[in-house]
Amino acid sequence: MNTATKSKHIGRNISRIRELRGMKQEALAIAIGISQQSISNIEGSEIVDDEKLQKIAEVLGVSAEAIKNYSDETVLNIINNTFSSHDNSTINAINVQPNFNPLDKVVELYERLVLAEKEKVEYLEKLLKGK
User: How large a percentage of the chain has pLDDT more than 70?
Assistant: First the structure.
């Protein structure tokens, strides 16, 4: 059965969008001034009246039309088409590989520490000779 012949289940769409937003039923209920049980009932309903749908859409940050036309398949297509591992931000986030040898950095820091200590000793010797 393709999506054109399937009837839209508005409650299920609300549930999916709410979950994608990381929102719990209780938070949505508080935001629109009803009980969590009412949200549960709405999400179980195939049809939601326009007034409630509009309030829910505002809280979820989408339009009522977006809720009516929501499709998991569309969301997955958008994610697949917009996510790529070829841009620098995703490469750095997923596959962290330093372009330097960490051991070289340790040696460099050690050499800088030794140099700083030598300079400190020379400075202290000059102070002692000055007295």
Answer: 78
Q: Cα dihedral angle (7, 13, 15, 16), rounded to 10 degrees?
A: 120
Q: Architecture of domain 10-83 in CATH?
A: Orthogonal Bundle (1.10)
Give the domain ranges of the chain. 10-83, 99-130
What does the alpha-carbon distance between residue 82 and residue 42 come to, in Å, rounded to a whole number? 32
Please state the rounded mean pLDDT for residues 111-126. Answer: 94
The band of 120, judged by pLDDT with boundaries at 50, 70 and 90, is very high
Closest CA to 53 of 125, 63, 122: 63
pTM of the model: 0.56
